[in-house]
Amino acid sequence: MRASRVLLALALAAALAAMGWAFGRIYRTCSLMHPGKVLVTGYCNCGKCCGWERLANGETVYTYGKLKGKPKRVGITSRGTTARHGTIAADLRHYPYGVKLYVPGYGYGVVEDIGGAIKGHHIDLWFPTHEEAKRWGAKWLKVEFVN
């Protein structure tokens, strides 16, 4: 069964690549290898996870993307809330702000943030330290919508 899914995913990727799509994007956004599951990763407020650096004057600024060089408020989500346990970053086309989710092994959370690398069926869970986020790693999980 798994081999047939792999072959299907490769055939679809080859067909879409002929139309100009990249396999990595298809794999991450469609989760063909893990139907019904979401790629769940972890992040914290650090510069590695959130793309900021502290200048000599103590100010924090974005290091890449369209906001490069502009001030960054550390620990504040794109929705304007303070990041805490239960804060989820997601692709707003799939999981809009305010959507409540249950993630096995983590608990309940709400979509409050976005991320440059968060595309498609991929969510990022907030952790208080970089070590905890790294320890979580990347997992394909069945995530439940909560009313």
Adjacency order of strands in the biggest sheet: 8-1-7-4-6-5-9
Give the N-to-C terminal Cα separation. Answer: 34 Å
Look at the structure and name the CATH superfamily of the largest domain.
RlpA-like domain
Radius of gyration: 17 Å
- Structural class, by secondary structure, is alpha+beta
- Percent in helix: 10-25%
Number of helices: 4
Largest sheet: 7 strands, mixed
The count of β-strands is: 9
Mean pLDDT: 81
Q: Order of SSEs, N→C?
A: HHEHEEEEEEHEE
CATH architecture level-2 label of the largest domain: Beta Barrel
Tally of distinct domains: 2
Our estimate of the beta-strand percent is: 25-35%
CATH topology of the largest domain: Barwin-like endoglucanases
Low-confidence regions: 20-30
CATH class of the largest domain: Mainly Beta
Key terms:
single chain; 147 residues; alpha+beta; Barwin-like endoglucanases; 2 domains; seven-stranded mixed beta sheet; 4 helices; globular
Give a short overview.
The chain is α+β, with helices and mostly antiparallel strands and 147 residues long. The chain contains four helices and nine strands; from the N terminus they run ααβαββββββαββ.
Model description:
By secondary structure, the protein is an alpha+beta fold. The protein folds into 2 domains: 1-35, no CATH class; 36-50 and 78-146, RlpA-like domain (Barwin-like endoglucanases, Beta Barrel), CATH 2.40.40. 24% of the residues lie in helices and 27% in strands. It contains 4 helices and 9 strands; from the N terminus they run ααβαββββββαββ. The strands form 2 sheets. The chain has a 7-stranded mixed sheet. Strands 2-3 form a two-stranded antiparallel ribbon. The longest helix has 17 residues, at 2-18.
